[in-house]
């Protein structure tokens, strides 16, 4: 394996409070040293990182690569390739794959496909209930032994509170974190935020309380069972306020937000733009601004892409019939940098939301450039501007509402385990 020196880069490592120009030395897939070269070190490859940022590889908490079903064989490889082009070195895959990840065999298949791809790492969440039906508990212990880092019922809420309570208790007994999509199924039958906009468009809306009622219920169950929990993709100011209070009270809860919810609002969908059909729906300007402030404060410890690639046909239908989701792994970093600029956050604090923050949530040792850790590294130009052309995306999904947006920040190299997986070696 190559011995690499990344020379003259601006090293930003939130986990170690590093924010300065330093050299990084890599050997045998690990971070060997930061700063001065170890005695006798001779590099096989020198990467000139002057005027570039060197940070831990990004960790994306929610990516759906649309596999492991045989009919989509090769999708994991293509989506991992798209991810590393965006500086993402670790992807977290929810359990709503095809087939559903409710058995160790499916977990093994996903991890095997990722290993075959040889680019980004994949970690998996196992199903809380069999086939995600919300009726019988899955074998969480077996899923944990197979490598799942947590459990979730994905975007299929468990309506039976007895089942949900038992699932939380089972996960707590194993020390597994539960990943929750807070949504009341009876209230969340629409496709856009419930407001004057939805009324004008004649579309069924999803009210704020579809999220806040679910968050309130889940927080009570978390308190009762003692399970560690993570709220996925919050979209409303009130829900984040409730989580902040729970954190203040000492409950073991964390939360994230999808990066598109930090930029878009319901008004972006006001012309029936199906590229803006997401779940949960885009909310009000007030909600968006509250989410941004919560990222800045750290209440929302992670920002993710919520990557959901779709074929064109899935979006070229009436709004209510279109599939929700955005192809986002390649725009996660530049959209985060845009938020950083708007809020005047430090680069270190912004990068923490896609490195050390998600690493802590998933219980991973990555997300840092600490000596002895895996050399998962992103090297990017923070100043390069470029225009997003969906046809240039490496993902199989070209479904993005950010077409034509001017982006800032271009990844130059991505290393996974000391191997250059993107950029010219």
Would you kindly provide a written description of the structure presented here, covering whatever features stand out?
There is one protein chain. The protein has about 425 residues and is an alpha/beta fold. It has eleven helices and 18 strands. It has a single domain (about 55-360), classed as Metal-dependent hydrolases (TIM Barrel, Alpha-Beta Barrel), CATH 3.20.20.140. The mean pLDDT is about 95. The chain starts with a strand and ends with a strand. The chain is globular and about 65 Å long. Strand 7, helix 2 and strand 8 (about 120-125) form a beta-alpha-beta unit. The relative contact order is 0.16.
Supply database-style keywords:
425 residues, globular, 8-stranded parallel β-sheet, 23% strand, 11 helices, alpha/beta
Topology of helices and strands:
Layout: E1 4-13, E2 18-27, E3 30-34, E4 45-48, E5 53-56, E6 58-60, H1 75-85, E7 88-93, H2 104-117, E8 121-127, H3 140-146, E9 150-152, H4 161-174, E10 177-180, E11 192-193, H5 196-201, E12 205-206, H6 209-225, E13 229-231, H7 237-248, E14 253-258, H8 285-297, E15 302-304, H9 332-343, H10 347-352, H11 356-362, E16 377-387, E17 406-416, E18 419-422
């Amino acid at each position: 394996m190559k011995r690499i020196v990344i020379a003259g880069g601006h090293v930003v490592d939130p986990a170690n409070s590093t924010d300065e120009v330093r050299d990084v030395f890599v050997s045998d897939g690990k971070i060997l040293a930061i700063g001065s070269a170890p005695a006798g070190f001779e590099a096989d490859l020198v990467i000139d990182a002057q005027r570039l940022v060197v940070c831990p590889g990004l960790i994306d908490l929610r990516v759906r690569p649309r596999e492991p079903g045989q009919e989509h064989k090769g999708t994991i490889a293509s989506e991992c390739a798209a991810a590393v082009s965006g500086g993402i070195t670790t992807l977290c895959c929810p359990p709503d794959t095809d087939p559903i990840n409710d058995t160790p065999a499916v977990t093994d298949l996903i991890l095997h496909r990722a290993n075959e791809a040889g680019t980004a790492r994949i970690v998996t969440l196992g199903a809380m209930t069999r086939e995600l039906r919300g009726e019988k508990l899955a074998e969480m212990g077996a899923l944990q032994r197979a490598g799942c880092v947590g459990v979730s019922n994905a975007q299929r809420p468990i309506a039976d509170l007895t089942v949900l309570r038992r699932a939380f208790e089972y996960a707590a007994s194993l020390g597994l974190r539960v990943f929750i999509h807070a949504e009341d199924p009876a209230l969340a039958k629409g496709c856009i935020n419930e407001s004057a906009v939805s009324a004008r468009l004649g579309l069924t809306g999803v009210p704020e309380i579809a999220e806040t009622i679910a968050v309130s219920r889940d927080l009570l169950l978390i308190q009762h069972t003692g399970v560690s929990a993570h709220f996925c993709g919050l979209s409303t100011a009130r829900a984040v306020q409730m989580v902040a209070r729970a954190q203040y009270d000492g409950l073991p809860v964390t939360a994230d937000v999808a990066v598109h919810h930090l930029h878009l609002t319901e008004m972006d969908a006001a012309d029936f733009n199906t590229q803006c059909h997401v779940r949960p729906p885009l909310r009000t300007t007030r909600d968006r601004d509250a989410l941004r402030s919560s990222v800045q404060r750290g209440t929302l410890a992670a920002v993710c892409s919520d990557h959901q690639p779709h074929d064109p046909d899935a979006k070229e239908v009436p709004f209510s019939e279109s599939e929700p989701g955005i192809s986002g792994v390649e725009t996660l970093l530049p959209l985060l940098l845009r938020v950083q600029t708007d809020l005047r956050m430090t680069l270190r604090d912004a990068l923490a939301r896609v490195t050390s923050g998600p690493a802590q949530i998933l219980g991973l040792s990555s997300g840092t450039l600490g000596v002895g850790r895996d050399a998962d590294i992103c090297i990017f130009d923070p100043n390069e501007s470029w225009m997003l052309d969906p046809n240039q995306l490496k993902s199989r999904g070209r479904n993005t509402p950010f077409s034509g947006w001017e982006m800032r920040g271009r990844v130059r190299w991505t290393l996974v385990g000391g191997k250059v997986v993107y950029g010219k070696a």
